[in-house]
C-alpha cells in the first residue's frame, strides 16, 4: 500500500471512557484544530448505554475532523449481546461514507469484501490470521496490546499489504465483561447503573490490599493502571514494519502528547526526553511497555534493553 | 442434549466415558490448548488411544486446539490439527481464525467447533464463523443471559454448546489480558490464566496473603481456607472500599436451568475442568448424567450432592441469571 519509508501515521484511538457529551465534543474539536494527528477513531466501543451521550455530537465532530483534513474511522462496539447492539453494528458497517473499525466478529461479517479497519480487541496473533482478514478487506489492523515484538515483526513482514498499528500511548484495555464492575463498586447493577462510570473520566482506580495501584475500571471494561508508552520503541517498531501509532485518549493534554510522538517519529526529539515530557503531562500513572518486551505487561523495560532488530 | 466432559489425562478420559459422557474434550501436551498445565494433557499416542477407546464405547472425542498461534511458530498448531484429524477426532475445538482457515482448507471434512475463546457472543459473530470457516458448533461465552442464549440459539446457523458447571470466567473469554498484565502469561498466548508458577502464599502477621506475580490478590485470616489467587476473583480496593471487585470466588453451576436450556434448543452442555482429577470427573459427570435422565422435578435432589465438589463450596448461575450483571 505504502512504501516503508513513508512517514508513520499518528492516530487517535476512540475515547474509551464515559465523558459527558459536551466534554467529548470539545476534546475532539481541539484535536481537530490543534493536534498533529492524521487519523481519528470515533465512536463508543465499550458500553452501548453510553451511545446516546455522544450521538448528538457525532456529526459536528466528524465535520470538524473532515474540514481539518483528518481522516475519520468509525469504531464499532467491542462486546455485542443485545439485539439493538447488533442493529447498530449492522447499520454502522452498512454505511459507505467512512471506514469502519471492526472490534468484534459481528462487524467483520458485515464488512466482508469492503475496505475496513480491524481493532485491537480482535484476536490477530499471527500472519495467517492477518492475511485472512486482509483478503476479506482489512486495510488497517491495530494489533492486540499484549503482542510481543517478535510477533509484531513476524506479522508485519509477512503481511505487507496491511498497514499495522500498535497501541502506543494510554491505559491498555485488558478485559471486557457483560457485568459492570463500575456499577458493582458503587453498589448498583448494570441495568440501573446511573452512569456512575461518568464520575471517573480516567477510570476508577483499583488498588491491591497493599494499597498498590493495579487496574482501573471503566464501566464493563477493565484497563491497566499503568499507561502504556511505546515512545522509546517507536524507531524499532517502524523498522519492524509498523506504520501507525495509536494514542488512546486519557485526561491530559493529548495535543501535547501527539506533538511529542510526532517529534520523535520525525527525528526532532530524543526518545528519553520524550518520555520525561510525557511523564510530566500525565503524572497520574507510571508507564509500562512490558507487553512489547514479552514480560509482565505492567512492567517498564529500560532503554538499555532495546529490542533486537 | 449432549454432555461434553473434560479430561486432562487418559485416566480421567476413561472415567468420563464410564460415567456417561456423550463426548470427551481434551488437548495435546503443549501450548496449543488452553489448559496448558504441568502434568496435564495427552501425548499423540495417548490421544489416539483415548479416541479409539471412546469410539469403541460410542463416545465422541473433541480435541481442543484453542490457543492463538504464536507468530512464526504456526506449524505447531497446524500439526496439532493434522494429528487430531489423523487420530480420528470427531471435532477440533478452535479459537484462532488463521487456524480455522487452515483446517477448513486442509481438512474440509473435519468438523470444526468454535472454542469459547473465539468470543462469539452474538448471532452475527456466529454467522461469520459459519460462513468463513464452515463451523458446525459454537461454544457460547459465559457472559450471556438465558434469554440471550435462547435468542442466539434460535437464530444461529449452527449448533450451540454452553457451559453449565465448573470454572466461571467473569470476563468475555478470549479477550482478557489481565493474567499477562500481572504475570506475562495469558490464556490466549500461553494457555494459562493466573498460572500456578506465579502464585505464592505469604504469611504476614496472623494472615495469609495470596499473591500472583508481584500483586496481592487476597488476604485470609488465620484458619480460613486460602483460595487460589485467580485475578478476577480477588479482593481490591476502590475509593477505600474493599470488595471482590469483579466476582466472588465462586464457580459456575447452571444445572438449575437444564430445562430452559433444553427448550432453548442448546445442543450440548459442557463441563469445565480438564485440570481436575479423575475422581472429580467421575462424580460430576455421573451425577449430571443421572439428572439429565431424570424427570425435571427429581433433578434438584440428584444434583445437590455436587455442592460438595464445587470450588470454594459456593456457586452461581452466573450471567444466565440476568441479575448477575
UniProtKB/TrEMBL annotation, chain A:
Transmembrane segments: none annotated. Keywords: 4Fe-4S, Iron, Iron-sulfur, Metal-binding, Ubiquinone biosynthesis. Pathway: Cofactor biosynthesis; ubiquinone biosynthesis. InterPro entries: Peptidase_U32, RNA/ubiquinone_mod_enzymes, UbiV. It holds the Pfam family Peptidase_U32. Coiled coil: none annotated. Its cofactor is [4Fe-4S] cluster. [4Fe-4S] cluster binds at residues 47, 180, 193, 197. HAMAP family: UbiV. Belongs to the peptidase U32 family. UbiV subfamily. Required for O(2)-independent ubiquinone (coenzyme Q) biosynthesis. Together with UbiU, is essential for the C6-hydroxylation reaction in the oxygen-independent ubiquinone biosynthesis pathway. Forms a heterodimer with UbiU. This is Ubiquinone biosynthesis protein UbiV. It comes from Alsobacter ponti. The lineage of its organism: Bacteria, Pseudomonadati, Pseudomonadota, Alphaproteobacteria, Hyphomicrobiales.
TrEMBL record, chain B:
[4Fe-4S] cluster binds at residues 169, 176, 193, 232. Belongs to the peptidase U32 family. UbiU subfamily. Its cofactor is [4Fe-4S] cluster. This is Ubiquinone biosynthesis protein UbiU. Required for O(2)-independent ubiquinone (coenzyme Q) biosynthesis. Together with UbiV, is essential for the C6-hydroxylation reaction in the oxygen-independent ubiquinone biosynthesis pathway. The gene is ubiU. It comes from Alsobacter ponti. Pathway: Cofactor biosynthesis; ubiquinone biosynthesis. Keywords: 4Fe-4S, Iron, Iron-sulfur, Metal-binding, Ubiquinone biosynthesis. HAMAP family: UbiU. Forms a heterodimer with UbiV. InterPro entries: Peptidase_U32, RNA/ubiquinone_mod_enzymes, UbiU.
Amino acid at each position: 500500500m505504502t512504501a516503508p519509508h513513508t512517514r508513520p501515521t499518528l492516530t487517535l484511538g476512540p475515547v474509551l471512557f464515559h465523558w459527558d457529551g459536551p466534554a467529548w465534543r470539545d476534546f475532539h474539536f481541539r484535536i481537530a484544530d490543534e493536534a498533529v494527528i492524521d487519523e481519528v477513531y470515533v465512536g463508543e466501543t465499550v458500553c452501548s448505554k453510553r451511545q446516546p451521550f455522544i450521538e448528538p455530537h457525532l456529526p459536528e465532530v466528524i465535520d470538524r475532523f473532515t474540514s481539518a483534513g483528518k481522516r475519520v474511522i468509525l469504531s464499532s462496539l467491542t462486546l455485542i449481546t443485545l439485539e439493538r447492539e447488533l442493529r447498530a453494528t449492522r447499520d454502522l458497517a452498512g454505511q459507505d461514507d467512512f471506514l469502519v473499525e471492526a472490534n468484534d466478529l459481528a462487524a467483520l461479517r458485515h464488512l466482508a469484501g469492503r475496505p475496513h479497519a480491524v481493532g485491537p480487541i480482535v484476536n490477530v496473533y499471527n500472519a495467517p490470521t492477518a492475511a485472512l482478514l486482509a483478503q476479506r478487506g482489512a486495510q488497517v489492523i491495530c494489533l492486540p496490546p499484549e503482542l510481543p515484538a517478535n510477533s509484531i515483526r513476524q506479522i508485519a513482514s509477512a503481511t505487507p499489504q496491511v498497514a499495522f498499528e500498535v497501541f502506543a500511548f494510554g491505559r491498555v484495555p485488558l478485559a471486557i465483561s457483560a457485568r459492570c464492575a463500575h456499577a458493582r463498586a458503587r453498589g448498583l447493577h448494570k441495568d440501573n447503573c446511573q452512569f456512575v462510570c461518568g464520575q471517573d473520566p480516567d477510570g476508577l482506580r483499583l488498588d491491591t490490599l497493599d494499597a498498590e495501584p493495579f487496574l482501573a475500571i471503566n464501566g464493563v471494561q477493565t484497563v491497566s493502571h499503568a499507561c502504556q508508552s511505546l515512545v522509546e520503541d517507536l524507531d524499532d517498531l517502524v523498522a519492524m514494519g509498523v506504520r501507525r501509532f495509536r494514542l488512546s485518549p486519557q485526561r491530559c493534554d493529548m495535543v501535547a502528547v501527539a506533538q511529542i510522538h510526532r517529534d520523535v517519529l520525525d527525528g526532532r526529539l530524543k526518545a528519553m526526553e520524550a518520555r520525561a515530557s510525557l511523564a510530566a503531562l500525565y503524572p497520574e500513572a507510571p508507564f509500562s511497555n512490558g507487553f512489547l518486551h514479552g514480560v509482565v505487561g505492567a512492567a517498564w523495560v529500560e532503554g538499555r534493553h532495546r529490542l533486537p532488530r | 442434549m449432549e454432555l461434553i466432559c473434560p479430561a486432562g489425562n487418559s485416566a480421567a478420559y476413561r472415567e468420563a466415558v464410564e460415567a456417561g459422557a456423550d463426548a470427551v474434550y481434551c488437548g495435546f501436551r503443549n501450548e496449543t490448548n488452553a489448559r496448558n498445565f504441568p502434568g496435564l494433557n495427552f501425548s499423540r499416542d495417548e490421544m489416539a488411544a483415548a479416541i479409539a477407546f471412546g469410539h469403541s464405547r460410542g463416545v465422541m472425542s473433541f480435541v481442543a486446539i484453542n490457543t492463538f498461534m504464536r507468530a512464526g511458530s504456526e506449524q505447531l498448531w497446524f500439526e496439532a490439527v493434522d494429528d487430531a484429524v489423523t487420530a480420528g477426532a470427531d471435532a477440533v475445538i478452535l479459537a484462532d481464525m488463521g487456524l480455522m482457515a487452515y483446517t477448513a482448507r486442509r481438512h474440509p471434512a473435519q468438523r470444526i467447533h468454535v472454542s469459547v475463546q473465539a468470543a462469539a457472543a452474538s448471532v452475527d459473530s456466529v454467522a461469520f464463523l459459519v460462513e468463513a470457516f464452515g463451523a458446525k458448533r459454537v461454544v457460547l461465552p459465559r457472559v450471556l443471559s438465558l434469554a440471550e442464549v435462547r435468542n442466539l440459539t434460535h437464530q444461529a446457523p449452527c449448533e450451540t454448546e454452553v457451559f453449565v458447571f465448573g470454572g466461571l470466567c467473569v470476563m468475555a473469554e478470549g479477550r482478557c489480558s489481565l493474567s499477562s498484565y500481572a504475570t506475562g502469561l495469558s490464556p490466549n498466548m500461553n494457555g494459562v490464566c493466573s498460572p500456578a508458577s506465579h502464585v505464592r502464599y505469604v504469611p504476614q502477621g496472623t494472615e495469609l496473603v495470596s499473591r500472583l506475580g508481584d500483586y496481592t490478590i487476597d488476604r485470609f485470616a488465620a484458619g480460613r481456607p486460602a483460595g487460589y489467587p485467580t485475578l478476577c476473583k480477588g479482593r481490591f480496593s476502590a475509593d477505600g472500599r474493599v470488595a471482590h471487585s469483579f466476582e466472588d470466588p465462586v464457580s459456575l453451576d447452571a444445572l438449575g436451568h437444564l430445562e430452559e436450556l433444553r427448550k432453548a434448543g442448546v445442543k450440548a452442555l459442557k463441563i469445565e475442568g480438564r485440570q481436575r482429577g479423575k475422581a472429580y470427573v467421575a462424580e460430576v459427570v455421573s451425577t449430571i448424567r443421572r439428572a439429565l435422565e431424570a424427570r425435571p422435578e427429581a433433578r434438584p435432589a440428584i444434583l445437590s450432592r455436587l455442592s460438595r465438589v464445587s470450588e470454594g463450596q459456593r456457586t452461581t448461575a452466573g450471567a444466565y441469571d440476568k441479575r448477575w450483571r
